[in-house]
């Protein structure tokens, strides 16, 4: 798998500065790349690494061209060009067929071009479309539907009725379609409310390792097209996530939350039930969202890290904050007199 | 599966307003229900949906009866009645037998009415009681005991010696009985302390998807009857959770914490080791509990979400809070003079 | 499995006070121990339990010797001595061979002393060294290497190319080597960046249940020797964790974070991307770290738990904190005049 720099530039709509015949076999970081590897630079702290790189070529934008004498592939979005070239040079190996150690229900419909790995279990009335890969030890329960070219890594669980679109990737340990946490209280005891909806996941989605997405109570839980979910996220019943929203690790989203399109939600954020979030909202790490957000923009909560001894003094004062505010007001009133 | 409204009313101890012969086949939300479906209303923002619903009948309480002209099933606790009716109309399919692709140790004792799914592994000296369902790809290690009618969804792991009561449900990806995080420090290096207790789970418990419950170090980790645990919860060694307590997703509970009965702990809460929490305590989302709570009531910690630019100004001021309090005190003292 | 107190004292370099011929069969807590069991005391609240224990002997240090009339094993580090004795009295059962229900690729190299459990899947070109135990239902993908005497509990996933050192323990549900969360943005849509590094885990490491460690984007994700990771931790791509650092449950560590040696990170901490943390840093529970820490020491963030009604008043005041500080400054200026 090798290409000239010129071929790669043509693929991503960039221009070459330097030797366009330079042969590129793979990608690497600036620090570790050799003469047959291409790297990228998007600015910031890697300037020295750029100056010293042994890479055959570097992807960058016009304004950084003067920072290197290396062969360059000049584009407006270097990270995007890098993503496309890295994918071209590292194609996913295609495979098909059903491993003899898989357990496949006779009523399942599996396209001949799909792959089912060892020890995977495919339930009744499942539909698996063309080009799907199901790695070992997955469980796909009855009536699930998996769209073209979607990929389940090892040890994924799809509970009954889950629908997955096309070109979607589910990472190991993810559980999709568990019952929502719905209960009625009967004099202190909790009575389970049957969870009768499903999980409906769109096209071009990623669901990270050990992420959980619960089925809807009555209606469905819906993950839009192009949504990217990192690891260890919890998505409760009847959540709806808009297209092209990205959510980082360890986020918890409670029941019936609706999140707009093109949002980014950083790691460890919590969102309480019923909250509605507009399009293009960006929430910083470990914030807690308890009320709906109707305007696009960036939002945050939390307090800064400090040395423990200093923090303890401020920490205690937080419990006096209302008192402090009232005393300040009193002084202002007195001084006005 | 269909019943008249009268039959359903009789089951849940309610009364019918309207056509008691109306035939109900299933449940649905107010917005999506048709004439053979029953829905429910508990007040709040769904009032328009109630007015417009096409449902065959609606479960509600007396005070909301005037908000609809629909057939009604009037009860004191509509959500509870809905839960019971939804369960009646959606019975869990019973199954029994051992799938030929399961691996069952010859010393395991499995009731003839139990079900063991494909690719599941049942270890030595395991006891599986009547009516238990173990879905595909579970691992039940040696000496585990699973009580009558409990249900393990696909891909559950029970490490050795775990005890599960009756009518308990464990969701996919849950791991019960991993070693506690117990170590002694030897001049900077960590030496593992063998974890010799087990996990003992009561009756009518739910354990959510990808939740982890560690075995005890010497004595056991104990989850009481009727406890409901959502997804992605971490419960450390020797924790004890009282009966009928409900814990939402992403909560982390450190070693030897004791939680009382009838508590509710909202999503993302952290509880540090050794903390003891009384009965009927309610903790709001993402609070951190570092000291024991001896009185029932509601408790919280944390700071509000704000637009990022405003938040940053307040965020920085938090580090000055002790200084602010002292300066305020000084002014008060001066002004008194 | 029984030993005299004298033998145990000799093993751990301690001295006996009392009957050195006392026979010990196992360990137990002070409250539950009987005459053939040894317990330990490290001070603090268990003093009454120490006075009342029925244990055959107690491990403690000199200064607590006067608190009991029991047989004692006196050492400088009682918890460490207890860990060593508990391990001696509870040896891990050794086993070897490949279970007939495992799926092993013919190109995998598996030492004759290793064990592969039922339903586990071992991929192409995997190397499994002497004494390794792989419990049921694990997936070890192509080109993984697992060092001597390492132990995979049931349902572990090692994605392709993962390297595990010697004497390392991975708990159930852990996923090692999933793709990092790396994407380029193309006019609002996210384009996946192939993740081409691996995860490289050292010797004597523990990885807790349902913990996830992502593979590097270009270079590798590296977990040093002696690192101890609790359950439900998320470690993103290209993180590097120094030797002998211990991290508690539910911690989230974003991309390219570098953590030093001998650190402790308490439960629920979040660390944002690119942060660098020095050696011997200790971070308290649920803190958020957004900037590098260059000095060893203890660090914290967060606000205290309060009764909900009191908390709400202070919570609101947090949004006025910058205003409070400015008004205070104004008063100070006025008063100086």
Account of the protein in words:
The structure is a homotrimer. Chain A has about 325 residues and is of the alpha/beta class. The first copy, chain A, folds into 3 domains: about 5-90, Udp-n-acetylmuramoylalanyl-d-glutamate--2,6- Diaminopimelate Ligase, Chain: A, domain 1, CATH 3.40.1390.10; about 95-300, UDP N-Acetylglucosamine Acyltransferase, domain 1; about 305-335. In chain A, strands 8-11-14-17-20-25-28-31-34-37-39 form an 11-stranded parallel sheet, with no helix packed on it. Chain A has a 10-stranded parallel sheet with strand order 9-12-15-18-21-26-29-32-35-38, with no helix packed on it. The model of chain A has no long low-confidence stretch (mean pLDDT about 95). Chains A and B meet through β22, β23, β38, β39 and α4 of A and α3, β40, α4 and α5 of B. β40 (about 305) of chain A pairs antiparallel with β39 of chain C, so a sheet runs across the interface.
